[in-house]
Design goal:
The chain is an alpha/beta fold and about 450 residues long. About 35% of the residues lie in helices and about 25% in strands. The protein has 13 helices and 17 strands. It is elongated and about 80 Å long. The protein starts with a strand and ends with a strand. The protein binds L-homoserine. L-homoserine binds next to helix 6. The site of L-homoserine (HSE) has 7 residues, from helix 6.
Length: about 450
Amino acid sequence: MGVKLGILGLGIVGTGTVQLLQDITGRHPLLQEIEIYRVGVRSLDKPRTVELSTEVLTTDLEAIVNDPAIDIIVEVMGGLEPARSLILKALSNGKHVVTANKAAIARFGAEIFTTANQAGVYVMLEAAVGGGIPVIQPLKQSLSVNRIHTITGIVNGTTNYILTRMQTEGSNFGDVLADAQRLGYAEADPTADVEGLDAADKIAILASLGFGGRINLQDVYTEGIRQVSKTDIAYAEKLGFVIKLLAIAKRNTPSSPLSVRVHPTFVPQAHPLASINGVYNAILVEGEPIGQVMFFGPGAGAGATASAVTSDILNLVATLKTQRVSTEELHQSKIQNPKSKIASLNPLLACGHQEYCQIAPMAELITRFYARFLTNDQPGVIGKLGTCFGNYGVSLESIVQTGFQGELAEIVVVTHDVPEGNFRQALAEIRNLSAIESIPSLLRVL
Ligand code: HSE
């Protein structure tokens, strides 16, 4: 009894998945039960690194999601449309879906999961966050008895690669980005990565699983890494930090609103995420009673992502096998299944959230800040800065003036924990001080 797959897309992830499925010796025996039945591609003429018969390859993706013989659709084409419509059609046709598409899930998760639950089928998305790192199933299953209070991730390999090189080489963002593009570590259009949008999609998905509610992507505060300068990276190092693009979801108490955000962050050098370098990803989950648990590994790449996609396929194959046995048993005992398919969904595999999580405004975020000021070098400037911060209850952890940029003095401040709203009010007052020339950098500190 084989399980038939319809794979949509034969790019890097699709090709890696086909390669894995065609080379199963030494892997889980259930893989033998999988048949690559159809693979949908844009062009039949393109040279491929995998061998697939002409009956398997097709350009008719609609026909794949409508084919009654197919049990599982594997959506690895990416992009919003037609991926969204094909996923919805497949689900309505009663097919389970495996997807690596974080952008579609983060934007259309509500309609995708509602459709899946109504049809009594699963949407599996291990590959959508962290590439090959198992983090979706652990959040759904192994960690689900915990009260999660924080998920902190380095979930974008491109930006981690750029920041790591800026740090080790003392280079500027623009130069490293151009080189990363030349080497294939950054895309020709790097917007989704460097502006933090890809990380926002991913933390929205992780937050939804960790905190048990839907997340409106527009509520995720998102700041990219374009404004991170080599000067700030050098200051970070002097002060005992590294700069990382962090995706954070945090809830202080089970009844308080969530904070969900992506921004470059000063991370203490001793923090477990500080040593995650290059294209690697890591996700630190903190909860009660588990404490801290960190997932680390390759966040992208053909083989790694194929590992995640195929683990989802295998999970569904196992589920289909047991469902088919129970359907046969029901038939033999002449009992009609009186329940809808929804009742038979495994709640540890499905996503049944209906409510949206309440997201706290950034002004209420309690965090430390790093700020760099360029000022006229005259008596009393540091005193005035301290007074303005004090006026809004912002306590300073350190204030240093070590350098000059031309004629201007460079003053660097690190605050204690403070409501972001207070910090912003103090800054507004500081901007009006005649001695302040500019505030080139503001970064949150973990
Ligand atoms: N563009 C992503 C990254 C990889 O740079 O991490 C796919 O999620």
